[in-house]
Amino acid sequence: MPEAVKVMRKYISISLLLVISLLTACSEQYNIMGNSSVDNYDGNVLYLKVMTADNVPCAYDSSEVVHGKFGFEGNVDTVCMAQIWMGSNSLLPIVLESGDIQISFTDTEQTVRGGNLNERLYKFLNENARLQNEIQNNTQSLARLIMMGSSPSTHLQIEQRNEDLQEKLDKLWTGFISDNSDNVLGPIYFMEYTAQYFYPVITPQIEKILKHAPESFLRNPDVQGYVRDARFNMRLMQGDY
Description:
There is one protein chain. By secondary structure, the protein is α+β, with helices and mostly antiparallel strands. Strand 7 (99-105) and strand 8 form a beta hairpin. The radius of gyration is 25 Å and the shape is globular. It starts with a helix and ends with a helix. The protein contains 7 helices and 8 strands.
């Protein structure tokens, strides 16, 4: 074989290896390490599922829990939301993003650490749970006080406290959506937030989110669909049809 041909083949082989390496490097690599102290998790298979375009959870990866340990690893082309399932039960949401992510299951809590978006998500979810619990406890306290025949002034104090907490909760949600309107979390939790309404509407809070949101958020199919229906409903209520 001529020497020039050998050199050319060697050059092509090296070039192909470099291209493959670059493509691999560009892929998002996730490494999820999990621990569980929940007895009935051992021996069960956990599934990492992502949503299809039709909003159907599809298995992306799986791992058996062995002596309280499990894990998922691989490449993902784009950062996306996923959930960890056991059987027909969704255990927790997680963002599939590059880097190391640690998950812990106990009988009383679930924790996720690692990854910028996961850290944001679970800071939000923990604060949301705290406020929801406080509102629920206040509501139960008010019911007990009413049954005991306490003074109306006491009821008003608790009701005012609940109104303040509801306002904090609303600001938590709208702030989280706005702060993450440029990534996968924004559209998903926008749809969660708007699910509280019986039908699509544009409230001042939603209008503020939309006003400052980037084009990528506004072009999201779910967000687009909601806004279209909400604008139509608002015109109906104003008598424009």
